[in-house]
Amino acid sequence: MSSEFKKKLEAYEKDELSGAELEAFEKELDKFEAYQESLEENNPKQEKHSNNDKKQKKVLRRGKWKARFQTALMAFVLFIAFTILATIFTAVYFSWGKPDRLEVYRSIIDHTLTVTDPYGYMGGTSTNTKAYFGLEATRDLNKMVGHESIQVGELKVDFLLSLMAIPEEKQYGRKSQDQPVFTYPETGSRGMSDWNQLEDLPEGTVVSAYVSFTNSLETKQVFESFQGKNMDLLWLAVDTGSENKALDEGIIFDPIGFPSFPIWHDNDFIVTEHTEEKFGWFGGKVVSESAVSPDYEEDDYGVIQEQFMKTLHFLEQHESKADKLVWGELNLSEQINYLNENGFQHYGAVITGPTKEILQLQNEDWIAALEVDEVAFWNWNEQ
Questions:
Q1: Secondary structure letter of residue 256 according to DSSP
Q2: Are 171 and 165 in contact (CB under 8 A)?
Q3: In 3D, which of 184, 189, 181, 209 has the Cα closest to residue 357?
Q4: pTM here?
Q5: pLDDT per residue over 47-81, tens digit each?
Q6: What are phi and psi of 345, to 5 degrees?
């Protein structure tokens, strides 16, 4: 093919030829195509070579698609195998030990809320393992108003093996208002008591409230002070020595305390019935147990204090996780040492009951201040 023909061919492809020049070149192309066909007819080896090229291209194309399919299939098989192994490893990891990690993580959440939230003892944490080394713990957040439990939010905590993520808390309407606080004894009145609010509330309502004491009281004194009154003592705030360090005009924003009954741990319960049922080929079994809490007399305040200290010691072993739940630092070792050296003193409590009954506490000298938490319609069962 001459250089002149190549130039004309390029001009032809670009539509740059016209008139007689275009007509002459098209005739020349017809001659070239006829020559090419004649050449292929008279030279079977060239045609055979062309067919071989086509077959080779077809084989190569098929090989490429086969390789791609095998790669995709292998990746899919590896993904399924990894998912199965990860699921098995996750289940074994969180169920390992006695008590197992599921039980430990549930206890961390439950006990932390019990000693840092006056209503934290209400409800329990449920857990659900995930496929890829994860665990999700969820818990309803409740308040006691009168004799009715009201859900005020939800808490969700994710774990990646032993790593705990920042807790996610959803708050409902009743939790969105200003949180009541305690006033430390002998720091002076802040003028924030809600006695007027109680006076304005009608009969047929119940309230929950934070009461601050004029002077620090021992555990027995707190119980005896509320004894015989038509109201319930829910939670006692404990002086752990850290309150004086963090006082803001006498206000205690982050109290620590215990409910008006012992904080039982799983290893406190007494097993009354134990059954095992085997299943499967690999020695699997289902264990079923029935257990009851230890005997406890209502005026045995020493048991309440002992179980509270046991809870603090347990949380001390998992303090980094407990700190995340309270968005701060509990400094449990310092608080434990303080309580061992100074004993138990209380600067406030959380109570609930009929509005007009709680209003009568205004006349008590040992009550320094009261802040209303929640109000509800009558739900009080007379005791």
A1: -
A2: no
A3: 209
A4: 0.76
A5: 555 555 555 555 445 645 765 777 788 888 888 88
A6: -130, 145
